[in-house]
Amino acid sequence: MKIKRPPIVESVSDFVEHVMGWTRGGERPVAFRGEQYTGWQTQPKVFRPDVGLYEHEKNAVRDLISIHPQEFQEDETMFDRLVRMQHFELPTRLLDVSTNPLVALYFATAEYKLNGKAEDGKVQALFLPEERQRYYDSDRVSCMANLANFTADEKREMAKAYRLNRTDFNKHPVVRRLLWFVRIEKPHFEPQIDPRHLQQPVFVKPKMSNRRIIAQSGAFLIYGARRLSNTQVDTDLRLSRATVPAGRKAEIRNQLERLGIHASSLFPEIDKAAGFVVSRYKNSGV
Q1: Phi, then psi, of 24 in degrees rounded to 5
Q2: DSSP secondary structure string for all residues of the chain
Q3: ∠ CA(125), CA(128), CA(132), 5° rounding?
Q4: pLDDT digits over 160-192, tens only?
Q5: Which of 33, 88, 132, 230 is the most exposed place for a label (fewest CB within 10 A)?
Q6: Using CA atoms in the order 38, 133, 75, 69, what is the torsion angle rounded to 10 degrees?
Q7: Burial tier of 113 (Cβ tally within 10 Å: 0-12, 13-18, 19+)
Q8: What is the mean pLDDT of residues 149-166?
Q9: Which residues are in the FRG domain (predicted)?
Q10: Nearest-CA neighbor of 141 among 58, 78, 89, 98?
C-alpha cells in the first residue's frame, strides 16, 4: 500500500490552497497547530519525557502560584489557571492550537536546527467530532484540568482505575479525590464520571481573557491521561498535515508579515513588539 506523503508548502498562497481542500467526511478542521520541527510528537509539553515535569506537575503548579499569587487572583477554575500558566510558558497538559490556519503557519516557519542541520516544519489540521468540543466551563474540562492537582502516585492509581466500569470507577478513592477538587469549582457536581472521557483529549474554546489568546485566535486541546490504555484507540481525533521546507521558512514568514501575521501582532506584549522592531531593521540590510 502506497503511503500518501503530506503536501509541501512553498508559499502562503500554496498553503491556503491546501487548507481549502482539507476536509474529512465533509467536515472542516476545528483547529490548526504549527510546529517548527516535523519530528516532534503532537502532545502537551508536560507529557514530554525530555521536559521531565510530569512526575512533578502538582508541585510545579503550586510553585508558580506561590511565587506569583496576584497573577492568579481572578482565575475561577483550574482550567483558567492552566491557561495562564501556559501563557507564562510553564509546561502544562494543554496543547496550544489556533482557529486561524495562518497563525499555525507562522509557528511552523520558525527556524529549527538539529545537529546543525535546518529542519522542516509542519502544520496540522485537527478534526474532532462535536461531542469532543467543549467550552471553558465544561464539567469534562474541569475533571481533566484538575488531574494537574495529582501526585505522580495518584496519576498511576488513576491509570489503573481507567480499566474499571463506570460505577466502580466513581467509587475508587483516587477518583473520589478528583471529585473533591472538582467540587471546589462546582459544589453540586455528581460522581458520574465516564473514565473514557478522561483519556481522550478535548478541544476547548477558552475565555478570550488575554490579549495573546485574542491575537492568535487561540484555543486548546486539554489532555487527561498521558497515554490511552492498551485496549483503547482514539479513532475520533484525525490529523491532516502539510510540510514547510526549511529552505522556504524565511520567505513564507516574510509573506505572512505582509499580511499582518508577525511577532508583534501575535505577541502583543511590549517586549515582543520591541524585539520585532529590532529584527525588522536588523534584517533590512541598511
Answers
A1: -135, 110
A2: -PPPPPPBP-SHHHHHHHHHH--BTTBPPSEEEEES-TTS-SS-GGG-TTT--GGGHHHHHHHHHHH-GGGGTT--SHHHHHHHHHHTT---SEEEEES-HHHHHHHHTS--EETTEE--EEEEEEE--GGGEEETT-HHHHHHHGGGG--HHHHHHHHHHTTS-HHHHHHSHHHHHHHHHHHHH-TT--S---GGGGTS-EEEE----SHHHHHTTEEEEE-SSSS--TT----S-EEEEEEE-GGGHHHHHHHHHHTT-SHHHHS-SHHHHHHHHHHHHHTT--
A3: 140
A4: 999 999 999 999 999 999 999 999 999 999 999
A5: 230
A6: -30
A7: exposed
A8: 96
A9: 26-124
A10: 78
| Residues 203-250: tens digit of each pLDDT | 999 999 889 999 999 999 999 988 654 445 566 788 899 999 999 999
CB distance 109 to 97 below 8 Å: no
Q: What contacts 153, CB < 8 A, 6 or more positions away? A: none
- Report the chain's C-alpha Rg in angstroms: 20
d(CA 72, CA 103): 27
**What is the spatial distance between Cα 83 and Cα 71, in angstroms, rounded to a whole number?**
12
206 within 8 A of 143, measured Cβ to Cβ: no
The pLDDT of residue 2 is above 70: no
Q: Report the distance separating Cα 197 and Cα 144, nearest Å.
A: 8
Rounded CA separation 48/37 (Å)? 15
Between CA 83 and CA 208 the distance in angstroms is 11
> Alpha-carbon torsion 205, 206, 207, 212, what sign?
negative
Query: CA-CA distance, 118 to 179, in Å (whole number)?
Result: 47
